[in-house]
Amino acid sequence: MKLSTEQNFNDYRATMAKVTMLYFIGIFLLRLWSVVLPFQLNQPVLHNINFDFTEGLFLASGWSGFLLHNTIANRIFSLSLLFLPVIGFLRPATRLPFILFSIVFFTYTLFNNLYVTHHQHYLNFAWLITIPFMARSDKGFNLLWKGARYYACWFYGMAFLLKVINGGIFQEAFGIMTLRTQMSSYIFAHPHSVQTNIYTWLFNHPFWLNVGTKLTFLLEGVFLIGFFTTRYDKWLILAGFLVFAFTAFSSDVFFIEQFGAIALVFTRPAGWKKRGRWFVKPPAPKLSI
Amino acid sequence: MRNHYFKKLWRHNKVLCLVIIVFMTVSTLLSKSVHNPYATVPLTPFYTWEMFSAPYIESDHTTAYELVCDGETLYQPAYLDHKKMFYTYTITKFDRYAQHNYTDDRYENYKGKLQRLHIDTAYAAVLSNAQEQILQYPAWLKSYLSRNLGRELKNIKVFKHYVHYDAQGIQHTDSSVKLLDI
Predict the structure, then answer these.
(1) C-alpha to C-alpha distances, B84 to B88, B90, B149, nearest whole angstrom
(2) Residues A149, A275: one domain?
(3) Which of B12, B44, B148 sits opposite A55 (nearest CB)?
């Protein structure tokens, strides 16, 4: 029996471009609704480069200040985040909107992290999946898309391995400490909610909290399988969803961008073929006389 | 690897193959670990998920922040993380600066790093927040929250509560500090 079948995304590039652009439109509509797009921030006064050299260059060059304080630049920057994916969706065969969007989105990750004063790493992976669409040839696109998938296997696998190397996985009270510190403001604000009652129950039943914590770590570790086979990719999407859901429950964060990007890169060609019918008209059959 | 990804990539485009290998290598070298001497600074877009990898210092005590808008405590659930991110993260930074007499304590760190890199140390002032900026934060927070919530706020307060958990896992407040009131 063949362990892994040949996977080619070449034929589905247009469908993948359309779905990926819909994903980005969704992200930026969520951010528009959440009042966090650059033009909605009322010009924040604090920044934090968090010792990041690239962030430092972005700030010291004056580029971040220009995008924040120049009203026209700020509006164009914000609008391009919403409209470049729309152009990409409408013209999936044209590379220019994808190249421009990749540049603008990378600038946005720097801008957002600088003024939110925190490194939101999950935006970096979302940015990475814009790169394959810049490829000139379909073969290059295929290889870059597979590269993004391997990168996802690598960073989730590393997240697991670092917990082993740095020792977090071996601490019995890791789950309790995560809930106590990450959820303390929530518990303070909602002392009698159902969610707080679940946390209190877990504090009193640390065995189950420990099981949940170790399970979340192992779900990151299973991505290492992805280096050897694509057979379990749909289960890796489920693993990614569970990591996302458990992290939201225990750490009060909502990495929906990361989960969306994971769902995209682990969708196999057969999945794109199925979805392709919704987005791209199949070519007309050739008639021979 | 049965599908020989890097072999195919090498045949297709050698430069691209090297770029991808370098990308993954640099990301690995920048992973924060006590065993990794290269993990000195983050460098976007290279990153690893090293957060939540080291053991905690175990304690029953921690802190909780409370944001009060026109007399009502505001705390959005996790699924509204995007809506709240620009004030939750910045409040903790403001608290940190307030503890240092409303100055950015990282100024000296940046100065030291720039000196080691032989870069003009005057940039440390650009990289850190000036006291003037820090003191403008309460007014910015009020105006941003008004926009974020879609109503003009008359007053906002931020408290930092020192809390502990008892043997039954119930949270109790030991003391509170008012961080801002505007």
Answers:
(1) 6, 10, 10
(2) yes
(3) B44
